[in-house]
Each structure stands twice: as C-alpha cells, then as structure tokens.
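Exercise: predict the fold of this chain.
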Amino acid sequence: MAVVPLVPIGRPRDRVLDDATYRQHLATLAEREGELVRRRAEVHAGWGEQYRQRVHKKGKLTARERIDRLRDAGSEVFEVGTFVNYGLEYQGGVKSPGAGVVTAFVRIEGRWCIVIANDNTVASGSWWPKTPEKIQRAQTMALRLRIPVVYLVDSSGLFLPEQSRAFPGARGAGHIFKMNSVLSAHGVPQIAGVFGDCIAGGGYMPIISDRVYMTEQAYMVIAGAALIKGAKSQKMTSLDIGGPEVHVHQSGCADVRVPSDEVLIDCIRRDVRRLPSSGADFYRADAAPVEPAFPDAELCGLLPADHREPYDSTEVLARLVDHSLFWEVMPSVGEEMICGVGRVGGLWAGFVINRQGLVGDPEHPGNKRPAAILYRGGISKVAAFSRACNADGVPLIWLQDISGFDIGAEAERQGLLAYGSSLIYTNSTNDVPMFTVLLRKASGAGYYAMSGLPYDPIVQLSTPISRLSVMEGRTLAIATYNTKLDDNFEILQDAEERRSIEEGMRAVEKRIEADMDPYVSARQMDTDEIVRLSELRSYLAMLVESAYQAPGTRRIKNSRIWSLHDLAVLVEGVR
C-alpha cells in the first residue's frame, strides 16, 4: 500500500504523568530555561547600551535592528551560534558576545535565508577568535540547503590583539572567501549590504556576492586610512579611499549606492523577492501545517532533567509532529529505537529517537535490558531507515538521548563494531538534509552513530538539559584511575593513597560534569544552538521547510514510490 499509514500517537498529559511529578519537572526546567533566556539577552546586548547609542548617533542601526527590519512581519528569527565564545575574556578583559557576529535563519519575502551580520556594538564588528568559523558554519548551512545568503557588513576587520587565533589556519578568516566562492560556484544567491567599515579581508567578503549595496557611510578598503598614513604618509579618509563614490562609480566593486540603512534593507528585500519562490508549498500539496494534538509546551514537564530518569519517547514525538500522526517503521525490530515518518509544518520528515527505560531482550526472551543504548537490532534498523530516507529524499531528524553502544563479550561476538561501522558509513555518505537534537544525554560513540556534529548534520541543536561527553563523570573517573583500583573497582586500602585517589577521582568527576554543560559545547562550537524545549518544534519546522525550499537541487520522491514502503513490507510482511 503506497498510502503513508499515519496513526495517532500520544496521550493527554495527565495520563502520561501525575500532576506532582509534572510540576516538579516544569520547575526544574523553568530554572534552566530562565537562565537560557537571561544569557541570550546578555549576548544580544553586545557591549551594552552605551555602544548601541554610539551606533545610533552615527545614524545607523545595530545588527539585530537591521535583521528585525529585514525579516517578514510576524516571522521568527532563528539564531545559530548565539553562545560562541560565551564567557571568554580576551586581552584587556574584554569579551566578544556571539563572537561579534549574528548568524540566523531569517524569512525574507517568504524565503528562508541565512543572514550573517557583524555586531557593530562589539568592537565595531571586529572578527575575534571563532568569528571566521562561525561565519563559515552559517555559510555551510546555506550551501547544504541551497538557500540564499545575506551579508550585513559593518566590520573593522580582525581584532588585532588576537589576530593569531583568527587569521591563520585551515578555518582562518581567509576560508570565508573560499566559501563565498564555493557558494557562487553552486549557484547559491549571495547579497551583500555594506553599512560602514569593511576593512582588509572583510573587504573581500562582499565582492563575490551577486549584488553589493553601499550606504553613504560605507567603505571597502584593503587598508584603512590609518594604515595608509603610516605606510605611505598620505592623509586621507577611508571614505576617500574606498567609499561608494569610488566603488560604485569608479572601480565597479559595488553595484548600488543608497542613502541609509533602511533603504539598503528595502533593496535587499526587493532582490530576495526576485528570486524563485520556495518549493515548500508545492511539496506540502494540500497538507497545511497543523499543530500537534498535544501542546509542544508540555515537553518542558515530560522530560526529566535527571538523565537517569526515564520517560516515554513516543510522547515527545506526539508533541512535535503535525496532528500527532506518525508512521512507525519496523516497530518489531530493535525495540530500543523508534524510527518513523511524520509531517512537520505540513512537510514529511523522518525521525529517529532513543527509547528510555527498559525494553525486551530478543537475545534472551523474557528478560529486560536498558534502553537508550544501541544494540544489534537497533543499529541495523536505524541504518536501514537512514538509507531509505536518503533514497526517498526525506529530511532526517535525529533526537538523541543515548548512553552509547552495548558493550561486553556478547556484543563483541555479535560484531557490534561492524554493525556500528555500517551505520556510521550510511550517515557519513547520506545526501539528504539531516538535523540533530541533543535532548538530554549524548554519550560516547552513540553520539557519533546518531549523526552527532562530527557527521555533518546541517544543524545540531542542544537543550538546557543536554549532556555531551564520552561517558558520565563517575564512569570516566573510574576509567582514569583504573590502574589504582582493585578488580572490583574499589580503591586500594592504603589510607594515604586512598585519600589521594578519592580526591583525584572527585576532581575528575567534577571537571567532566562541568564540561558536559551545553554552554561549554556552544561556546566552542561543538553544538550550533541551545533552544528551549517549548521552541524545539518551531526550530524543526523552520529547518524542514528550508530543506524543501530550493526545488531541483536534490531528489525528493513522492510518497507513493518511497523505499520506506518496501522496507516495511520486507520487515513486517504484507497486511
């Protein structure tokens, strides 16, 4: 049967969890999410009100004000990379909120675009350590999805005291310009607006764009006036050297001269409007976006913050997919994993999520074993599902809450290394857009196997309760001090040595627990963004729609000829 056999999933909240437990979970998460909101506001403030006022006195808008004017009315802005460099201090005790650049998915004239905007309230939009990587990460998202890129340029170049950490290397500042070139070579539209400073390497970023606008305050120069004065003893302003009079009317390095920020933004919107419209409505056909039957806000009370506490993963899916309708594929195999298809915002997406608690053990009928672990059946099931989604062009969403792979003598005899390698090969070679969410724990090779960031998902999201590490702190402490423990992993009996080992193990456990903080991952770009559970569905809807926006750039099969149907028949039999 070629009809996608969607069935209702989920139950009302009061049938899933008692009121007291639900309220307890809500209170814990409210504290974590409140901290997320506070920290976002801290980053969004840049260097503070004084610097915002300085921008306004120049007759200019701040980066986020420009984005707010650029976006379609009523649409959300979905930032990525908010917490890059969060909490770090540089020479002179200064900080670089968001690495001095805003990168976000923004809907412009009905089309999702990647916007890259220098934060002119942070050292005049300077490039810090990690700024180039953050820009390149956003460029890569646009390249993979084939969606337009808009550059809002207002940058005084490298933050020179830290230039050694931003200029050289394979992902140094120069790689941004290679990405400009690669995007152009793949036909991805690029539009640049230059609002102010555009110095040195930054001068190259707009040039390869398809359209370059400059305001009357803007200039693009290889070297600014101060450097020229020092090198050549010539007195002139940067506007004299590379303002719109030079680059629009003489060099041809820019296309259009405009009087103000507001007019430039209107011109960008007009150019985006001229691009082909989104293909998302075509692929939706008559399936309009529909909210889940159960509010997605309930996720905040259904997911316990304690990673050892189980929950029903089906209830998570029921609060993410349209109308809470879902087709679970191969349910009789690999019970520890749920694989299936549902709509998000009216568009098909595949889901892979770890079950929690205990599941049956097909190797030992009648026994139970922990879920949130990859066993042979689950690995094979996920690999086959991933291959089928890739063949069918269905975007794939990985919802991780995983402790890792099964271990032990039986696991090795079963060849889990080979099964895991098959899954890793599949996810490494897929062409279909894949997005990863770290719901809670993301541990060990399980994080890799479920399309963690090293396997190039287009976007990886974390939540305030995410924990990313090789293993839990206590387990890692035991592994670290293994040579000093007896065969039962007990500390040796010598009192002095015992005290030293205990202190060392506590220190290792404390450090590992601190390293699991999602803000640490976000700071060093090991995850793309931290999102509240209540906004997860809206992020996923945006990402899935972005995956369908550019028709003709990848294979998208209609649901009648999905490989998933064949897979279901082969595994479950004809019904």
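Check your answer against the key: The longest helix spans residues 19-44.
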